[in-house]
Amino acid sequence: MATDLLKIRDLDPPMGDLFSDLSIGSPLGLWSSPLDLEEGAPEHRILHAQALRLHGTARLDRLGIRPSRGFHNCGSHTDLDWVTAFRLRAWQDGNWQNLIEKTGLERSEPHHPHWFSLGGIETSAVLIEIRRCGIDRWWTPWNLAAGAFTLEGELIAPIGPRLERLLQATKITLDGLPHDVSATRSGGEVRFVTPRYEVGFFLTRPGFSHLGLKTEDSGLGGRNLLFQRAASFPQGPQLHEIGLPPRIDSSVRFDCRGTVEVVGNRISYSFRTGSQHYVLTWVIEPEALRLEVSRESELETRAWISTPWRLAFRNSVSPAHLIGRRDPVGEVGATPLPALLNFPGFGSLAIEAVSPDVFLRYNAIRQSDQNTVELKLGEIRPEDGHYLLPGGRFEAEVVFRPVDPPPVLSDSAPLSVVEACRRTYYTAYSYRPDMGTLSNNGASMPCAICMDTWSALSPGLADLVTGLPAAELVRYSLERWLEEGPSYASGRIVIEGEVHDAEDEYLMTGTAALLGLADYLERDATEGWFRLYENRILAAIDKVRARDLDGDGLIESDWRTGVSGSGQWSTCWFDIISFGWKDAFSNALLYPALVKLSGVLKRRGLDAKAEELTEWSGRLHNAYLPAFYNPETGWLAGWRCKENRLHDHAFLLINGAAIRCGLVPDNRAREILERLLAEMERVGVPDPALGLPGNLWNVPDEDRTDILRGYPFGYYQNGGRTHAHSRHLLMALYRVGLNKQADRLLEQLSVGFAKASVFGGNQSGVDWRYWDDRPCGYEGLLTDQFGFLEAVFFRWGKL
Fold it and tell me: Which of the four, 73, 393, 474, 756, has the lowest number of CB atoms within 10 Å?
């Protein structure tokens, strides 16, 4: 009987409600180069496909395609995207065969999909690539791949059976341990403790049982960073070859025969599965964890999933991220070594290997509270997302070493600032290799609206990994933005059936990204890079220029008007306060972007464009203060709405941004800051250790979005305390000579970072605080928080 093959579930553990909920069809992210008919596509982009990982042969009858959820680039609403071009490929005779290639598809109705006959062809694997979609075009989203397809057919070979075997212990002795290494055995594991970390190993199946770091806080070694769950085994080796049942998976299969041996500080697993023979020997040393690994086979095989060792981490403990070079081929997330694995609040591991046969693969799985890092040994990555395991013997030694940040501050830096820098240095750049960009955090989404924050930090961060300057990660992120890769507050949005640029609503994404681009071009870009992206750079500038709707130099949004009672989302980073029309924050960042870009373009021979930007920046400068200065309060308002009313709720950080960006004369700037500091004292702002409020006065419900209405002052973006964008106030204070006040505030803010009390696990909410210190955030960690380091590097940096 025909069924939707994509919805067939794999087997669950036989244990109550501890089901795995795994389907044999699931989305797959792929780096892709343009096909012959894809003129205008980026040279490297991420598209998503639906992969049908069959356990044997199936018959394919027909494919249905319908609209489904698109990329979540705005919290204000959810768009239904649609497939406009796709390619269906089937695995036959050891290769992918193209069965259908279509372009120019029109949007269907959700309940009346497009149908394509497949004629009952038999295959053992299917890949349905979304080559282009209606909203975000070349960057086709995971959500759409997850929901757009129905693949009707029938299984010929059944789902593979449950098959869990246990390794046999040949010898277990903990005698002869090195100095500073201790060990215990209990509960089916061996646990080792060193001065720098704690690690545990399961005995009857290869995998970590525990991983804890002590580099930031010696008391944290017992806190397990790993994802562990009853009836689930996401750690250690995994293998699912194309067209066969999985041999090793995270739920019901470990089809292996072999042994485990523990002698002192060495634990060795040796086992065979199918044609593969693995030997994994871990050596626990006081300062590092060393893996000697080999894979041997007489036969070549191809696999959907293959790793001799996977580490799965729990995001709600710490949203781990992996920093390394981008490698845009095949399945997303591949990362060459060396690399650095950061656990916010806990510490970092430098990962190194001498062998060229080793690389890593990173994947964030937010919905299941996991981030994973897989070791790859002797594997080749074709462009279609599977892995070729050649026959032969491959071996390597991989070292996992707990590391401390380099000493980047001067000897005069206060202890709280030094400690804050130590605990945030590697956390500040939350890079996601599976998206090829810096992101909100290791379990969250890209956010081009933070580009200026990242660019501000890159000079102080230097090389995060040997030979990898921090500016390279900014480059990766800029390229994704310039090539129209979507992110939060960027990409494309549908309103009343019309598609438009999300940055027409979120004005600040365009201005923050231009400022980040200007910084990169000034400091780091090669001439070759500039020429490669010149047309896209000029187009990005022109897009922002087109948002000056009334010709005064300031940009406006027709979509978000800022009118009280509209309930609209924001044009700037404060996304659920109804900033709109002329927005003081977005325009503040635009001014230095234009000034810097004018200089960059002039030096590269684009004199006419440079002059245009000089003229534009002058008009913006002249219009800014009259548009936003409020003579009744003596400081700048947050926005001027389309009804020409100022909306002023004592926005502390926005005033700081305007002043540090050079839009307020120094004498008036100092007066504004002194007034705001006095107002902070008058209203009783709590100890800044847990952050600063974005506004000192209550934003009334009529100036909030619907989802924020009804909450008290001090909740989240209406006066909640955060470190995000505190850098602007600090840099403004230094600019006008209020150095003592800036130093004191910087030291106070440092305490929250030094104690790691203002960033934490995914959805912990500690990134925002009520005035009584109760958490009122959501993510737990926001990349903008770490912009605070700009002021640290400015005041006490060695560079």
Answer: 393
